């Protein structure tokens, strides 16, 4: 079942904890929980999402707030790997599009390293190989999970959506448990859970408001 705003937040799916002690949402009730979901091969994650979450971590680390990082993969499966995540966290090295973009912007040092370190625990999403058998029912199941009002679309638009979903599923090598359970739109995404363990926010992209949101939940 996909989780919605206002639902009890399920634990994040974890393939492996790469940095920090293992933990999860159910271990931190009574605290505001922020999960920064990113991909290793995602320039925007390292320019916007992760730095904003680091800002929250530094500002609230002495309060009832926990920040977690979760590397996922919904594309570029050859780059968004456990090996490249470990490389990032142990040496600061970035790869692929992240490297190219940050290099162009002068945001790397020593050729290929981040200018900052991620200070909070980081895991990789639980990735499972996708089914190879596809039919119209599977395509429609995927569509209705992500577009509940699909039937209201014009017929031509429905056909286009079906074709695009079919192509997407054909190229989808893995299913990322947390990314799909929380119905995230892409990366960077931020999951925010209140002190009662209720999902309050699913944010996509740069928000410039994470600290304000966390402070508001702390004040409740």
Q: Could you say what the CATH architecture of the largest domain is?
A: 3-Layer(aba) Sandwich
Structural class: alpha+beta
Mean pLDDT: 93
Task: Indicate the proportion of strand residues.
Answer: 15-25%
Helix content: 25-40%
- Supply the number of structural domains: 2
CATH top level label of the largest domain: Alpha Beta
Total helix count? 7
Main sheet overview: 6 strands, mixed
* Total strand segments: 10
What's the order of the H and E elements? EEHEHHEEEEHHEHEEH
- The residue ranges in which pLDDT falls below 50 over 5 or more consecutive positions are none
Q: Between the first and last Cα atoms, what is the distance in angstroms?
A: 28 Å
**Radius of gyration using CA atoms only:** 18 Å
Question: What's a concise summary of this model?
Answer:
With 220 residues, this protein is of the alpha+beta class.
Q: What does the model show?
A:
It is a single chain. With 220 residues, the protein is of the alpha+beta class. The chain has two domains: 14-126 and 176-218, Glutaredoxin (3-Layer(aba) Sandwich), CATH 3.40.30.10; 131-171. It is 36% helix and 20% strand. The protein has seven helices and ten strands. It has helices at 43-60, 82-91, 96-104, 136-146, 155-171, 177-181, 210-218, and strands at 14-19, 32-38, 65-71, 108-109, 113-114, 122-125, 127-129, 174-176, 189-193, 199-204. Strands 1-6-3-2-9-10 form a six-stranded mixed sheet. A two-stranded antiparallel sheet has the order 4-5. Strands 7-8 form a two-stranded antiparallel ribbon. The radius of gyration is 18 Å and the shape is globular. The mean pLDDT is 93.
């Amino acid at each position: 079942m996909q989780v919605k705003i206002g639902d009890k937040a399920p634990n994040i799916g974890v393939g492996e904890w790469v940095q920090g002690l293992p933990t999860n949402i159910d271990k931190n009730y009574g605290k505001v929980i922020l999960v920064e979901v990113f991909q290793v091969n995602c320039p925007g994650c390292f320019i916007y999402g992760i730095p904003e979450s680091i800002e929250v971590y530094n500002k609230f680390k002495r309060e009832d707030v926990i920040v977690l990082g979760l590397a996922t993969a919904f594309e570029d499966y050859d780059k968004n790997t456990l090996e490249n995540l470990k490389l990032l966290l142990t040496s600061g090295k970035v790869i692929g599009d992240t490297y190219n973009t940050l290099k162009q912007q002068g945001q790397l040092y020593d050729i290929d390293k981040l200018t900052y370190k991620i200070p909070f625990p980081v895991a990789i999403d639980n990735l499972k190989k996708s089914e190879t058998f596809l039919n119209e029912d599977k395509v429609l199941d995927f569509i209705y999970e992500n577009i509940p009002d699909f039937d209201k679309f014009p017929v031509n638009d429905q056909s286009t959506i079906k074709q695009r979903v079919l192509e997407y599923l054909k190229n989808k090598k893995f299913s990322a448990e947390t990314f799909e359970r929380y119905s995230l739109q892409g990366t960077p995404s931020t999951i925010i859970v209140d002190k009662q363990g209720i999902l309050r926010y699913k944010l996509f992209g740069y928000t410039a408001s994470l600290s304000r949101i966390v402070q508001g939940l702390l004040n409740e």
